[in-house]
């Protein structure tokens, strides 16, 4: 074969090699693209719930008469704002006529969850009857009651735009397990039923009773309630989880307020993130054979330390019937009722 033939053969070989290189590059691109598509499909399966569109703005009704607000007159015996500028709601810090008028224009639905397992079903009647007198009166409220004894739930007359849904759950032998399981059930309820149905949610204890107004002044993106035992105590007395091994650990010298696990709430999106995070942290603790000192309340306090509430409710919104009334508490709105814990709980 001559020189020209050899050169032609080399050219053909290079062309063939280039062709197969292009084909191989195309196959690699397609494979990566298919993998990317599969990843996108997987991600779509786990997308966050589609939250109900909220009406924004604080529009007052024309001609509405209410007391003139003042920058000089107000509560001087308590703090009405946190160090991160979140309002702290006390009697005398809001005008119920004005804020009711503003929020009724928004056509709100407030989901409210309670758990009544075992002997705690005895508290359902007083809770619901008192809520119908004082809790978001004039607004749409949907109660979701988790219980292992649906047949034991008494009939309570509901007002207009008020509904009760009873959800059966498994019985548990330890009150600590009942407490710790709540976050997962709340997370799933928000995902599966509430995301596009309600505007706000409050998660409350059932062994409680309403004595005064609990209304739209409590609404916010993320709402914590200051615990009645510790509202006037220094942080070194707070019963935070102090063991570093726990996901709920808060070191000495840290902390803002001590929040009650018996009442918290906010927007569906923010409470979903709260319950999801606490559920994950509880599972990590369980895998490491550790249980936070106050179970979900300990994890709630850790969450609120790192994710500051946008609104705080004073102990007016979570008192205890056995507590003496403090001078700062002008109104008791919601209170934990007196009971024999050894008798109503399934274990010590």
TrEMBL record:
Query: Cross-referenced SUPFAM superfamilies, in alphabetical order?
Result: Nucleotide-diphospho-sugar transferases
Family assignment from sequence similarity: Belongs to the glycosyltransferase 6 family.
TM region(s), chain numbering: 12-30
The yes or no answer to whether the keyword Chaperone is present is: no
The record's GO CC annotations read:
Golgi apparatus; membrane; vesicle
GO terms (BP aspect): carbohydrate metabolic process
Q: Which cofactor does it need?
A: Mn(2+)
Annotated active site: 297 (nucleophile)
> Which sites bind Mn(2+)?
205, 207
Annotated keywords: Glycosyltransferase, Manganese, Membrane, Metal-binding, Signal-anchor, Transferase, Transmembrane, Transmembrane helix
For this chain's record, the cofactor binding note is: Binds 1 Mn(2+) ion per subunit.
Q: Give the location in the cell.
A: Membrane
Membrane-protein topology: Single-pass type II membrane protein
Species of origin? Carassius auratus (Goldfish)
A molecular function (GO) term: hexosyltransferase activity
> Which Pfam families does the record cross-reference, listed alphabetically?
Glyco_transf_6
> Protein name, please?
Globoside alpha-1,3-N-acetylgalactosaminyltransferase 1-like isoform X2
Q: Where does UDP-N-acetyl-alpha-D-galactosamine bind?
A: 120, 205-207
Entry binding sites for an alpha-L-fucosyl-(1->2)-beta-D-galactosyl derivative? 227, 239, 297
